[in-house]
Amino acid sequence: MSENKNKKVKIVLAVIAGLAVMVLVAFFWGKQWFASSYFNQGQTAFLKGDYDAAGQLFEKSLKFNAKNPEPHFYLGKIALGKTVSSGPLLYPNADYESAVEHFEQSFSFGLVQKNKDAYLVSLNDAGFSYYMLKQYEKSIPLFLKYIELNPTGAFTARYFVATDYLNRSNKPEEALDILLPAVDAVSVNSPINRRNLFRVYSLLGRLYSYFADAVNTEKYARLSIESGVAGNREPEIQVAHVLLSIVYGSRGDFSSAMAEIKTANELAGSGSAYNCSLVTAYFAGKNYFDAVEAAKAVKPSNSYGYSTCLQILGESYLAEGNKIEAKKYMEDYLTMTDKFKDKNIFVFRNREKFVDELENLK
After folding, report:
1. 279 and 312 Cβ atoms separated by less than 8 Å
2. Cβ-Cβ contacts under 8 Å for 300 (sequence gap 6 or more)
3. pLDDT tens digits, 52-108
4. C-alpha span between 129 and 116 (Å, rounded)
5. Is 120 in contact with 149 (CB distance < 8 Å)?
6. Dmax over Cα atoms in the chain, in whole Å?
7. Contact at 8 Å (CB) between 64 and 31?
8. Contact predicate 76/125, CB 8 Å
9. In sequence order, which residues have a C-beta less than 8 Å from that of residue 359 and are 6 or more positions away?
10. Rg (CA), the chain
11. Residue 181 is inside which H or E element, if any?
């Protein structure tokens, strides 16, 4: 009798265990089904441009599968908002902090294995988001990875890496190498890239100016002006006119140099914003007298622009053999630029040169 009872108990326990397994399986697959259903609905809403509805659906999907990287990818895109076809920002209404949080989550949960196309997009968008947050140490490695995986389509990544290399990291050769492919036909095949090509040309002009390559400086400065929208007042167009003024100055054509500075100042909405650049044009043409006179006529400030006047005053006096005045202005330049949070390739080079020159003047 006890044996039969034991058999019945075992049967009951087996049934209960089976039911428990079935419940767990049903619960698991139910969670997966709900996660998938909400995710698919979210994708549909996202493609329709209804970001509010899409965001709510992706959040619901994550409640049923918290480690799915794809909802985080889309939530990152939603945090960035919709792109614009012109202007310096791809995403003018973005919540960059939220975007990078979701992109990092998507990376940590294995987006690269689950959706390689989305992973590529995330690298570029996360790089851009960190750049806009001025977290360059996180931005640049993401952009470089994107360039490695998508070399012919990395227009934006190349531009921002080259900008960092020029403005902050003091890597002029690397900047030129990484930026030149951005002008390839494949890289500029989207309307947004074509509309922003003038920025790349202007940056190339600055890099070639650093290397004293007047031919390519002029080439890319003119391409920047020609490829920009008519009447474009963007800083990159202003810089292109400044670059042309320096090229004209190096040829001794100071009237043309003055005309380019006048245009740059008008575009900047100021009659004097680029007057120190005219000083540079005089110096480039070895017109040290006018360089000194023009520099002394500029109102002093703590700006990068005025530091150029100090630089040219130091170099012009040195070229004329006036070591006392040269020493004074070189020291002033070093004092001012030492306070700059970020130093571009020109400042790095000038500082190194002046330190050496001051050592020789002792």
Report:
1. yes
2. 306
3. 999 999 999 999 999 999 999 999 999 999 877 655 567 888 999 999 999 999 999
4. 20
5. yes
6. 120
7. yes
8. yes
9. none
10. 30
11. none
The C-alpha atoms of residue 54 and residue 51 are separated, in whole angstroms, by 5
CA dist 231 and 242 (Å) reads 16
- Spatial CB neighbours of 149, under 8 Å, sequence gap ≥ 6: 120, 123
Q: How far apart are CA 196 and CA 12, in angstroms?
A: 73
Give the number of other Cβ atoms within 10 Å of residue 3's Cβ. Answer: 7
Rounded to whole angstroms, the Cα distance separating 345 from 153 reads: 27
List Cβ neighbours of 238 (8 Å cut-off, separation of 6 or more): 264, 267, 268, 273, 274
**Tokens 């987006």 appear where?**
111
Task: For residue range 26-55, list pLDDT tens digits in order.
Answer: 444 456 878 889 899 999 999 999 999 999
For residue 140, which of 160, 120, 168, 125 has the smallest C-alpha distance? 160
The Cα 186–Cα 152 span in angstroms is: 6
* Residue 341, helix vs strand vs coil: coil
